[in-house]
Amino acid sequence: MIQILLLNTLIILVSTFFYQFFWLDKRRTPATNHLLISFLASVTLVLCLTFPFRSQSGYIYDLRIIPLLISFFYGGYRSFLVVSAVYLAYRFYLGGVGFYSSTFIFILMLPITVNIALSYKKRTRKQKMMSGMALVFIWYLFVMAIKLYRDMIIVGSSELTISFWASIILINVITMWMTIYWIEGMIEKHKMAIEVQRGEKMSAMNQLAAALAHEVRNPLTAVHGFIQLLLKDEIPEERRNEYLQIMLHECNQVQAVITEYLSWAKPQMEETCQFDIGQLIDQSIHITTPYAQSNNVEIRSTIEPSLSFTSNPCKIKQCLINMMKNGIEAMKIGGLLQVNARKMDDYLVIEIIDTGVGMTQAELNRLGMPFYSTKEKGTGLGTMISYRIIEGVNGKINVKSEKGKGTCFTIFLPADSSSTRLTS
């Protein structure tokens, strides 16, 4: 008997695990949650009724009450009505002398169950476990009373001993405690994960807002100061033109920061096409060559033929040019910028290697963050936008660097990319 009831306990705990796997770990909506609870509780209840302990008089004993109550506690009225209908229908299908007794006890316990369920969500975890255990205990007290009454009236004696009733009630109560404890633990963990995510998002927003304000405030402060100087009549005309040029430069700087920020913050779906990676790299090199020459940097490339990719070519080119310029600017006294492209397994791999100043591990960890740059006048948005573009096509960027020896940016693009991607 105990082995069969423990099998019911295992069925209930496995169902609880599926609840965590299919809902809590997948961030389902409340409506889907009700459907899932109804389904899992119904399946669990049917399995408990299918594998019960049968007494010689034809009565069956199992842990059916636990999924029935759990569906009410965590799924609400809708789930409880569905599971109750499944319970009564399947119990009628099984037949036997205990059907009418089971239905009578169900109706008898319904007001108590509804009363406890109404305030269940407002209770603490300990109170929920105590309520569930008490309800199961009361339920089986009614079962025991009716069974003993029928045995004494019809048979004149009971086939079941006190140790049997103690075992079945104890297993039901402990299983109910374990189930509620596990579910409450999962829900608490789920809520904590949401809070952590919310906190991380708020922290990122605060950092972004502070960095953006800092980047905009500095040029505006300069413009404000020069405007005050221009209001003075004694400023020479040549000085005025100089101040106006500086103010225009600072205003352009503000506009550039805002434009780069908006291009990162507002992703949009764009039409894409298939293009050759090698040709796109050649175009990017052609655009950056004058800049490289002015910085005494030589650009070399090694590109495998027939590397096709489907995406927005303008965005990929923007990413490549950003990274090439970063590599050129990292070589303050000139050097070599090597660009390689090849296919490796399921990826198209693009390497941009410079012989510049390199970065420390701390600098690498902050790479791609908004407004972080190793350059004196950089905003960091170009690198951040590049990361955003590559992530938008389900790619990734790996960076290896050593201080004083240079940096290698490796871009991995999926070889079997789809025709439409999210780009920045």
Automatic annotation (TrEMBL):
Annotated transmembrane regions: 5-23, 35-53, 65-90, 96-118, 130-150, 162-183
Membrane topology of this protein: Multi-pass membrane protein
SUPFAM superfamilies in alphabetical order: ATPase domain of HSP90 chaperone/DNA topoisomerase II/histidine kinase, Homodimeric domain of signal transducing histidine kinase
Xref: Gene3D superfamilies: 1.10.287.130, Histidine kinase-like ATPase, C-terminal domain (3.30.565.10)
Reaction catalysed by this enzyme: ATP + protein L-histidine = ADP + protein N-phospho-L-histidine
Residue ranges of domain Histidine kinase in the record: 211-417
Entry superkingdom: Bacteria
InterPro entries: HATPase_C_sf, HATPase_dom, His_kinase_dom, HisK_dim/P_dom, HisK_dim/P_sf, Sig_transdc_His_kin-like_C, Sig_transdc_His_kinase_LytS_TM
UniProtKB keywords: ATP-binding, Cell membrane, Kinase, Membrane, Nucleotide-binding, Phosphoprotein, Transferase, Transmembrane, Transmembrane helix, Two-component regulatory system
Pfam assignment, any one: HATPase_c
Keyword Kinase: yes
Subcellular location(s) per record: Cell membrane
Annotated EC: 2.7.13.3
The protein's name: histidine kinase
Phylogenetic classification of the source organism: Bacteria, Bacillati, Bacillota, Bacilli, Bacillales
